[in-house]
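Hi P.,

Sorry for the delay on this. The queue was packed all week, but I finally got your sequence through. Input first:
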Amino acid sequence: MPARLSTIAWACALFAAAAALPARAADTGDLPCRTTQECNEQAAKIGAGGAAARPKAQPGKGPVHDQFYWVNKINKASAVMLVEKGIFTRAQGELMARGVAHAIRQAEEPGGKRPADVLQIERIMTDDAGPEVSIIHAGRSRQDMYATYRGAVLRDETLAFADALLKLRQRMLALAADHVETLMPAYTNGVQAVPITLGHYLLAYEAAFQRDQQRAQEAYARLNRSPMGAGVLSNSIWPLDRERMAQLLGFDGIIENSLDANQVAPFDQQMEAAGIAESSAIRVGALMQDLYTQYHQTRPWLLLQEGSTYTSSSMPQKRNPGLIMRARMAASDVVGLAQAAAIRAHNVTTGMVDYKSEVDELGVLTKAASMAQAADTVFGALVVDKQRAEEELNSDWTSTMNLAELLLKEHGIPFRAGHGFASDLVSYSRPRNLTPSDLPFYVVQGTFTQTLKRFGLPDQPFPLTEAQFRERMTPGWIVAHTQGTGGPQPAEVRRTLAEAQKRLQADQAWMQQRRARLQQADTALDQAFARLLPAGGAR
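Then the structure:
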């Protein structure tokens, strides 16, 4: 029979059989499918969750961490626990192990299937080991299995994001160490405000990312809890060992309340993860905008290496900052995706799928990790022109606050009078394109006399010589003489840099420990499962 006629005959027979039976809900395990794509499409047609089958990011090499991978990992843990607990016999455990091993092995063979749906995976197992292998589903539901899968994916994505933050922070601290004494203007309200150092600036934003690192670590402790064994939402009649399954799957414990486990906690976990990603994105966006503030100037003091920019197709002079734009756009995407996650989770009843998978499906944390990597690339390509930065400082009046404070501290001039005096100097100088280095000293003296009169203070000569005035109005002198914890003075920058490096090392150690614990859990699960397999392994 020709292939087309054979297909038509098969379809007609299937339709006739279906018409002869009373209408009933579709069992995804009974859906006809011969490939991974077909299985997922068939499940998706009836809204059974085939869309969650996309590969997940993971460190290093190894199997694709898709839904198929995790369902089989859960199946391994279930089989081990059911036998260890004495719920089923060793012989039954071997049967379950045979079915799970077959499902995993066939997926690696030509024409093998990796469906996402639980029942489609179970059908692969029963086709090989018989219907009895479905005992593995005792006490389980799609609800707790998918909640566990999503929790594991969120765990991995949180670690990947936190790891990207670590690398970005490491880059920023290395750059800060190179620029402890590099002067730069700081801005408020978009206007040059006071002189600081580039090292001081970078440490400020690194501190913000370290707080996000803390938030991710704290969130990890809450999200790395297993819902597995909670059934739909009320456990079951089977005495499942939830703690053992949690251990085998690398979780630090269980979400105790069974309703919370599958139906309530996912909301908190998803929203917390999205919030941390959004927090970092807002800071990355601010950083990139600061870089733009300089880069788009005619004579910027912050540039990108020539090989890290691209030229215009028509304007040869242009060096377009594609790296900065890419990082900025990634930050905007993360903010948008986080908001989309919140909107999707908003105003739905308990138990709906909307709020359970939005962070994963929208790719919030995956995008956030890419954003951090993009920012890291920008800082790796940054070129700092120290001389130009100092020129920019000297071309404006960022030293005037220091002048007012100096007059108060050393000469007893009330701060408001000193502030008015400095402001008058600026008002006089700017229309005439004068700076602190070339403003005539007699103007300084005369303005001081007028200010004292305006504030009703006794007349006195200006208390600084011209040389003292010029020196104390330089950004370098101001930064060097700044006092107080956490300031831009080089000695304090070096101290805070050392503390930041210690925090970075502690956070790196935390990451290594979490990765190691997950690897140990993987190894323990594989060993326990291997002991279940019949002698000689699964056929």
